[in-house]
């Protein structure tokens, strides 16, 4: 059919990984405690320890852009507290590499 | 007058709140989190505990409970709302109060009695207290380290919205903050537990002026 776009096969499944970390400047007592413990275990020269969390899930969306928008909204409204946390989002079609 | 006490799955201080309110001559009504009504309550207490298991973050899931829509509307209309401990965390997550509560500086769960200084009598929780008065009130939390942006802190200080400060900061809270109020001064959040300091037999009755303030606000 002239002018027709590719046939729409329904939503695509995307794998999502969200890494939640404390914003710069927000104290990280867990990271600081781990860092202080390292020399006692023989690990010298390690610094900048920060503790966050990783959240993984799947999402159905028409395309990757739409999937990213939904995940961003999910992060802003629920998965992170923007006062103290940032989110880094990975979205890939199929299984995450 | 009736004080509505919100009950989430995982709340564990609702009985203390009910007991303390009743001992002062008020009536208390338990508001199940799944109902989107305050059933005519004249004031609301969001009590302590571990609402929805504190999964993800304290208060993160509780803010989506149906009752919170009714609490937000009540607060917007000027109704008195007090969040205690986990309730304070819920109110910040719900956006009814600014800032956030993060893990205590020392990474220890704190269960002790602290001294609080009343910083303003201009709030629904402190109208019957005296500025400068020192109150002995229990704390019982792991995530009570109040933090906020520099702009928010300047606003809280400039508008006299820091309601209570720790005399000896136990958890790393910015500016020794133990409790704050919203711009309307009708929503207050605090980490310490005034409902556990309602009788000398419990070790302190210094929570009485705070709870009495709430009852006064409820009757207004």
Task: Characterise this structure.
- The complex is a heterodimer of chains A (97) and B (220).
- Chain A has 97 residues and is an alpha+beta fold.
- Chain A has a single domain (12-93), classed as 2-Layer Sandwich (Mth169, Chain: A).
- Chain A has two helices and three strands, in the order E-H-E-H-E.
- Chain A has helices at 29-37, 64-79, and strands at residues 12-22, 53-61, 85-93.
- Chain A has a three-stranded antiparallel sheet, covered by helices on one side.
- Chain A is elongated.
- The mean pLDDT of chain A is 90.
- In chain B, the strands form two sheets. A nine-stranded mixed sheet of chain B has the order 2-1-3-4-11-10-9-6-7, sandwiched between helices. Chain B has a two-stranded antiparallel ribbon with strand order 5-8.
- By secondary structure, chain B is α/β, with parallel strands linked by helices.
- Chain B has helices spanning 14-23, 66-76, 86-93, 150-158, 208-219, and strands at 2-7, 27-32, 43-46, 81-84, 100-102, 110-118, 134-141, 145-147, 162-166, 177-181, 187-190.
- The N and C termini of chain B lie close together (10 Å).
- In chain B, helix 1 (14-23) links the parallel strand 1 (2-7) and strand 2.
- The model of chain B has no long low-confidence stretch (mean pLDDT 97).
- Chain B has one domain (2-219): 3-Layer(aba) Sandwich (Rossmann fold), CATH 3.40.50.
- Chains A and B meet through helix 1 of A and loops of B.
């Amino acid at each position: 059919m002239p002018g027709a776009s590719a046939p729409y096969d329904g939503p695509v499944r995307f794998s999502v990984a969200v890494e939640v970390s404390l914003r710069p400047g927000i104290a990280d007592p867990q990271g600081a405690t781990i860092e202080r413990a390292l020399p006692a275990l023989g690990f010298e020269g390690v610094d900048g320890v920060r503790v966050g969390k990783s959240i993984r899930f799947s999402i159905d969306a028409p395309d990757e852009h739409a999937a990213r928008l939904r995940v961003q909204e999910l992060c802003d409204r629920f998965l992170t507290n923007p006062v103290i946390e940032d989110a880094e989002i990975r979205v890939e079609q199929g299984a995450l590499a | 007058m009736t004080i509505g006490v919100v009950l989430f799955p995982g709340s564990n201080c609702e009985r203390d709140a009910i007991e303390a309110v009743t001992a002062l001559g008020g009536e208390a009504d338990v508001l199940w989190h799944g109902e989107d009504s305050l059933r005519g309550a004249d004031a609301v207490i969001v009590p302590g505990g571990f609402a929805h298991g504190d999964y993800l973050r304290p208060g993160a899931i509780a803010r989506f409970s149906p009752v919170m829509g009714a609490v937000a509307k009540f607060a917007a209309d000027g109704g008195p709302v007090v969040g205690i401990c986990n309730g304070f965390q819920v109110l910040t997550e719900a956006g009814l109060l600014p800032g956030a509560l993060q893990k205590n500086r020392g990474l220890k769960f704190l269960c002790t009695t602290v001294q609080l200084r009343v910083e303003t009598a201009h709030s629904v929780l402190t109208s019957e207290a005296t500025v400068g008065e020192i109150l002995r009130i229990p704390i019982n939390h792991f995530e009570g380290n109040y933090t906020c942006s520099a702009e928010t802190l300047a606003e809280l200080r400039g508008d006299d919205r820091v309601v209570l400060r720790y005399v000896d900061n136990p958890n790393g809270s910015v500016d020794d903050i133990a409790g704050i109020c919203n711009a309307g001064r009708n929503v207050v959040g605090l980490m310490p537990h005034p409902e556990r300091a309602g009788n000398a037999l419990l070790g302190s009755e210094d929570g009485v002026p705070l709870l009495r303030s709430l009852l006064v606000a409820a009757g207004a």
